[in-house]
Amino acid sequence: MNNLLETEYIHLLKKLFEKHRYVALITKDIETFNVDLILWKGTRKYIIQIIKGANAVDIRKVQQVAVNIKTYSADGAMIITNQSFTPSAKKFSSLNHILLIDHDELINMMQDENKKFVFQTALYLSQHK
Q: Which DSSP letter does residue 29 get?
């Protein structure tokens, strides 16, 4: 993805989260490059990482995002990808408050006005097992 398309994509996501009443900051604007967006809703803080590539997102990428949760003192994270996720990535993410969104799910969220972004918490995990 070239830089123009990447920038447009990040701005589109920013608007989407703001529509869902998050305060969204594009991190490239403040020269922080290890996450793409930082979101706030009330006192809760979340980080968003966009991962593009030809292969499924593996556990190593999810582990990097888990480290960033601690670095940013975030309450959770979301990984958005144009690919799928490996089984080990899915399992690790569920243990580390990381929501995994593939391209199809993101499109569904954009089209459904009533769909809410639910970040993984202990309550979320107990309701969705």
A: G
